Amino acid sequence: MDPRVHTHAETLVDHCTDVGPEDDVLIKAPALAEDLVVALYEQLGERGARPKTTLRSRRAGRAYARQMDEADFRTKEHALAEMEATDVVIMVQAGSNAAETSDIDPSKAAASNRANGPVLEERLDSTRWVITQHPTAADAQRAELSTEAWADTVYDAIDRDWAAQRDRQQRMADRLDAADEVRLKSGEHTDVTMSVAGTVGCNDYGKQNLPGGEAYTSPVPDSVEGTVLFDVPIVRNGREIRNARLTFEGGEVVDYAAERGEEVLSSVLETDAGARRVGELGIGMNRGIDAPTGYVLFDEKMGDTVHLALGNAIEEGVGDGAFNESATHVDLIVDMSEDSVIEVDGEVIQRDGVFWFESGFEA
Amino acid sequence: MDPRVHTHAETLVDHCTDVGPEDDVLIKAPALAEDLVVALYEQLGERGARPKTTLRSRRAGRAYARQMDEADFRTKEHALAEMEATDVVIMVQAGSNAAETSDIDPSKAAASNRANGPVLEERLDSTRWVITQHPTAADAQRAELSTEAWADTVYDAIDRDWAAQRDRQQRMADRLDAADEVRLKSGEHTDVTMSVAGTVGCNDYGKQNLPGGEAYTSPVPDSVEGTVLFDVPIVRNGREIRNARLTFEGGEVVDYAAERGEEVLSSVLETDAGARRVGELGIGMNRGIDAPTGYVLFDEKMGDTVHLALGNAIEEGVGDGAFNESATHVDLIVDMSEDSVIEVDGEVIQRDGVFWFESGFEA
After folding, report:
1. Which residue stretches of chain B are H helix?
2. With pLDDT > 70 as the criterion, what percentage of chain A qualifies?
3. What is the pLDDT of residues B268-293, one digit of tens each?
4. B24 contact residues in A (CB cutoff 8 A)
5. What was the ipTM of the complex prediction?
6. pLDDT of A130
7. Which of these, A77, B13, B202, B223, could form a disulfide with B85 (CB 3.0-4.6 Å)?
């Protein structure tokens, strides 16, 4: 086995989730990630914790959804009971075919998400959890890299000095914490403002996402005003969303279009009322990721990007603001590397991807 | 996908477990069985049930057990909570390497089984469940067959007229039900008697095992007397047990030896007091299986065999007898095709594998 898999597993149970002998641990992983599952069981055995693994299979999910009627999705009681008795959740992504669910009606995916709402809530409220990535050939193909180069990309982003990353990001988190308003401008199409007054500036240094690498907050839901062109593509429910353009008024999406995947975007927005509002503003700060990979987990952390999530707010970021509740949470990403600024309370804190504390910054 | 996989899935959710829209279904399957998992999700979607899948991985189990101390195994609370909320369990076997756990101390496997006792009990008491097999190349290798020939063997044993099988087996089940004593004699080494007075003769026509194909009962635990040579090999915890010879007095194993795997047998017997007694007598009646495969699920159903299980009794078979309780249940098999008889209350009902109601039978 690649020795980096062992290091990865150790980081997951140590830095990310701090597992001890009292913990019941739930791993969720596809078949292709079995190496990482094996390495995790080794680590968990060493700590005397109790693991079990749920098989993630998009093929199975597709086969199921095609037979189900939208109205028939209901919460899985055994999944909920399991989550209620779980202390730590380790979710592993390892793709075999990103288009696997591309022939599922997106409204069914939204119905499935709604049905899963209580399980999601239980995980967010009552477990320590982390999402991570195990490299596969299919994912390498999407990133337009050889399998080995993709594995290097994954482990370069994961095997970082997270203490140093934490300190660096804390400057941005503090800035967000103290701020009242954030404005994002990029190219001709993106100019959006939002209130972050009273919300909390948070620091993702690889605890809940591995790779981590962002500063984030949950903006005041009603305050988002303006238009954003999300020009870094993402994949949702097996379909690409490319160049989505959303207009917000009073915090709500009032107009939208996308060059590709407009139907998927539409079904996301129709999940519930909260899905039409912004639950998260994130600012990518992981310089170990230097080109889009097609994977949100990586691309949203890229140093030259910001992202807004439609849907459920991140609890830690809400503070005195209102909590935007939704059964979904979809991160959409803007490239800030050229002709772009982030302003905080009228002051430019990033220009063309360069932060105020980095060399080469022009105020 | 092999069309027989779809038929298999349909039999599992229909004949075996009768799944409806009210059911939360738990599938337990290794990565190599993903085709069957996909086919099951399709069937379960059609019925409006709610599936989830636990990944079975012997590699992971081995990595975990090697790090754990025997005394540290404890019940997985999330697995127990999940099982309590589960209506139907479908367990799929699909081997990649039968020797995967051969370098684990068998006493750790026994400790793991004991810790899993409450989950097992919950499944047996409160769910509809079935165990089945999905064909793989590694399993074909163990059966000394080509991959295609092994798939044919699996589906020939599974795709049967289970109504006809039920009727045929019911004659044997009725005979067991009415009997007071059963005696098994085979070759020089096997001669054992046991009381089945007051116990229930049961008919396995592919409900809890697919393939099914046996008549069975749970003998009176204290009544087993004599010696048995189990000459059909089985694999337990990654190690073969071959030609195990057990002597019973007052129902308890008082002496044992095995040509191979004696240490594994020993650890089975040491699981708990119930593991030293017989929990089941089964008589194989599936003529679709005509040679040992190395898989208990198949070999114990073979028309020319009987098996005794060490450990936990089968509830349905106990009747007025005492329930033999144990955290384990290990089926050991005797070849009855030559120089063998089964006697019920002194009357020969099978000679050299031929039942009294079959042509060629000599009383």
Report:
1. 3-11, 34-46, 58-67, 77-84, 106-115, 117-126, 137-142, 147-158, 162-178, 262-269, 296-299, 315-318
2. 100
3. 999 899 999 999 999 999 998 988 98
4. 76-78
5. 0.88
6. 98
7. A77
- State the pTM of this model: 0.89
Question: Is B360 within the bounds of a domain?
Answer: no
Asked if residue A363 belongs to a domain, the reply is no
- pLDDT digits 0-9 by tens, A4-42: 999 999 999 999 999 999 999 999 999 999 999 999 999
State which of A158, A181, A202 marks the end of a domain.
A158
Residue A322 Ramachandran class (φ > 0 left, ψ -120 to 50 alpha, else beta): beta
Q: Which of A59, A67, A78 sits opposite B26 (nearest CB)?
A: A78
- The answer to whether residue A34 is domain-embedded is yes
Mean pLDDT across the stretch A250-277?
95
B104 min Cα distance to partner chain A (Å): 13
CATH code assigned at A89: 3.40.1830.10
Asked whether residue A122 falls in the same domain as residue A233, the answer is no
Q: Best of B10, B22, B34, B41 to disrupt the A interface by mutation (most A CBs within 10 Å)?
A: B41
Q: Are residues B172 and B105 in the same domain?
A: no
Q: Is the CB of residue B32 less than 8 Å from the CB of residue B6?
A: no
Q: What is the mean pLDDT of residues B336-357?
A: 96
**Which of A21, A34, A63 is nearest residue B57 as measured by Cβ atoms?**
A34
What is the Cα–Cα distance from B302 to A1, expressed in whole angstroms?
40
User: pLDDT digits over A161-184, tens only?
Assistant: 999 999 999 999 999 999 999 999
Final residue of a structural domain among A141, A158, A175 = A158
Please, is B81 exposed, middle or buried when counting C-beta atoms within 10 Å of its C-beta (0-12, 13-18, 19+)?
A: buried
How many angstroms separate the CA of residue B6 from the nearest CA in chain A?
12
Nearest by CB: B82 against A41, A72, A82:
A82
Q: What is the pLDDT of residues B19-67, one digit of tens each?
A: 999 999 999 999 999 999 999 999 999 999 999 999 999 999 999 999 9
Residue B179 shares a structural domain with residue B310: yes
Q: With beta carbons under 8 A apart, name residues in chain A contacting B43.
A: 67
Residues A226 and A272 in one domain: yes
* B171 and B111 in a common domain: no
**Are residue B222 and residue B148 in the same domain, yes or no?**
no
Q: Which residues of A touch B77 (CB under 8 A)?
A: 24, 50, 85
Do A94 and A233 fall into the same domain?
A: no
Q: How many domains does chain B have?
A: 2
Are residue A145 and residue A194 in the same domain, yes or no?
Answer: no
Residues of chain A in contact with residue B41, where contact means CB-CB under 8 angstroms, are 57, 60-61, 63-64
Question: Which three-class secondary structure state does DSSP give residue A28?
Answer: strand
pLDDT for residue A185: 98
Q: Please state the rounded mean pLDDT for residues B114-131.
A: 95
Give the residue among B4, B12, B78 at the shortest CA–CA distance from B49.
Answer: B12
Do the chains contact at B26 and A59, CB–CB below 8 Å?
no
The Cα B286–Cα B131 span in angstroms is 16
Answer yes or no: do A45 and B55 touch at CB < 8 A: no
Q: B218 lies in a domain?
A: yes
| Over residues A326-351, mean pLDDT | 96
Angle at A129 between CA A127 and CA A133, to 5 degrees: 160
Contact of A187 with A339, CB cutoff 8 Å: yes
- The whole-angstrom distance between B260's CA and the closest CA on chain A is 29
